[in-house]
Amino acid sequence: MTISVLLAVAGLLLLTVAADHLVLGSSRVAARFRISPVVVGVVVIGLGTSAPEFLVSGVAAARGDTGIALGNITGSNILNLTLILGVAAIIANVTVASTVIRREVPVAVAAVVLFALLARIGLTVATALVLLVAAVGALWLLVQGAGQGGNIELVEETVAYVEDRGDGTAEPVTPPPGRVRRWMWAWGEPIRALLGLGGVLAGAQLLVVNASSIATALGVPPLIIGFTLVALGTSLPELATTVQAQRRGESDLVVGNLFGSNLFNSLLGGAVVGFAAPGAVPAGSGILLLVMVLTGFVAWALLGRGLVLTRGEGVVLLGAYLATMPLLLL
Hints:
By secondary structure, this protein is mostly helical. The chain has helices at residues 2-32, 37-62, 66-91, 98-102, 104-121, 125-149, 152-163, 179-218, 222-234, 236-247, 251-276, 285-304, 311-324, and strands spanning 94-95, 308-309.
């Protein structure tokens, strides 16, 4: 089992590093095609940070490990709005624009509720189609609403995130002089995104195979392994993006990323599981689905009250995540 643990950790590390490059590479490619910064912030970054969740869940479901697949989605959704949002609030107060609370957050919470209801029924091909249609509809609503509402805060924060090199300099928006530099400017980010995607796929396979072996060796239900080890690992990209954005004071991007990640996890992740392994949900998943829904409403209520999440409330969210652990014993 020692080898399985080491390989699972290697898969987690590969997922984290690869997802970071996937998000940054795809965001910069989208920006160079002059795609709206709001679309980049809501869709590209949210989809990129969610790639580990639905790819890991898809691989697990295809292998017949539906417990790992469902545990990963529910665990990631809970973790995003408790542990990660709590960490963001402890770093600094999370101040969010009213447009994000009125538009992005309600759509994401509705997506989580829909996923919970359909997962309770059973993730079949039919329910997967419903989730897929809902995903397309949600993206259309977000993009249309963002274009009409003109969320200036999210636009500015997305541009800062995409252009920041992390060393105090900005990514050039036009081709630099020199043949090699121009080639790197034109092809470096697409190659980064493709390698990141490949790394996420490889990390997902490595993590799922060995997580399943660990569950078998310990006699632990796969649902628990998915909710803990796998969910924590696939949420590391969200944690890295959140810490990086929050340290620069980009709270709208933090909130949009976390709730957007839950939207993609629920709709696309649930659809992938339904298509890959249609069938009944694992035993014991009902309480986790309920906690997942309640977590979304609590985080929404805390942010909506005054449009700020304080450090004290961040500590409460961290405590809420720790309180979900005993539920696994039920």
